[in-house]
Amino acid sequence: MEDGVEAEKLPEQSTETIAEEEVPGSMPEVEHAHAPHGHGSGVSWLDIIVTVSVVFISVLSLVVSIEHGRTMEKMVDQNQKLVVASTLPLLTYGWWDLDPVTFKPLERLSLRNDGVGPAIVEKFEVRYKGVVQTNDTILKACCAQYMGKGKYQSFFGDVSGTVLPARDTRNLMTIKPLGSDYKLLQGFDKVKADMSFHACYCSVLDECWETDFDPSKRPQPVKECKVSPNDKLW
Questions:
Q1: Residue 6 DSSP SS3
Q2: CA 12 → CA 9, 15, 16, 42, 137, distances in Å?
Q3: Cα(228)–Cα(232) distance, integer angstroms
Q4: What is the number of alpha carbons within 13 Å of residue 161 lying toward its C-beta?
Q5: Residue 214 dihedral angles phi and psi, to the nearest 5°
Q6: CA-closest candidate to residue 159, choices 200, 124, 127, 204
Q7: Domain residue spans in the chain?
Q8: Rounded CA separation 26/11 (Å)
Q9: Tell me, what's the pLDDT at 95?
Q10: Mean pLDDT per 10-residue run, the chain (234 residues)?
């Protein structure tokens, strides 16, 4: 340097160390804690008892759950049976030979539901000597030789495709003589043994049965009542 010129003094460098945590943006070092691992009690027989107890309780809980499920299934099944039993229809038929009002002789065929639920009557057939008859042909087929010249009244009712309530009766055929000529009634009474009936009906739960009204047989369950347009139904 030239003489007379005072040398410029530079600021002294600081040698002080800055802690890392004081520096903006720096992350402090995190100490990693270690979770303690589960250990036994240190007593071998006690550990065995605890393990066996846990297994036993688990097995017992499983058994209880299975039995509870079975019990619930049984209850559901029983409830379904009760519902079915409370809606079960049962068709029967009967003959009457006296007017319940006038007590005069007649012949009456009636269909009755002796069950506890409504009967949906899909099909009802009347047969004479195995041949299906309609209400227009039944008297000619069975009793033409007994009609004579006597006067009578005949009434017919239809039941197929209708609902017959429980404990209700539907009259299907009534023959009343007009006067004192009972020849037709007497003849009709002789041929009743050659008449048979067939029905297919269902409950309100769509359970269906077929029957020939044989007192020694129960109505047979079927999937559905099949009715064709050519069936001669009452």
A1: coil
A2: 9, 9, 12, 66, 137
A3: 9
A4: 9
A5: -80, 120
A6: 124
A7: 54-86, 91-222
A8: 28
A9: 92
A10: 47 50 51 50 71 79 78 69 78 91 90 95 95 91 83 90 94 89 88 94 94 92 93 92
Whether 138 and 128 have beta carbons less than 8 Å apart is answered as yes
CA atoms of 197 and 156, how far apart (whole Å): 15
pLDDT at 226: 92
Question: Pairing between strand 220-222 and 208-211?
Answer: antiparallel
Fold (CATH) for 91-222: Immunoglobulin-like (2.60.40)
Distance CA 118, CA 168 (A): 9
For residues 103 and 84, give the distance between their C-alpha atoms in angstroms, rounded to a whole number: 40
- The 3-state DSSP class for residue 164 equals strand
b (16+ CB within 10 A) / e for 169-190:
ebebbbbbbeeeebbbbebbbe
The per-type count for the chain, helices as H runs and strands as E runs, is 3, 10
Residue 207 corresponds to which tokens in the numbers above?
């359970």
Residue 43 confidence (pLDDT): 66
- pLDDT value at position 78? 65
pLDDT of residue 25: 52
Question: Are 120 and 90 in contact, with CB atoms under 8 Å apart?
Answer: no
> Per-residue pLDDT tens for 89-129?
999 999 998 888 888 899 999 999 999 999 999 999 999 99
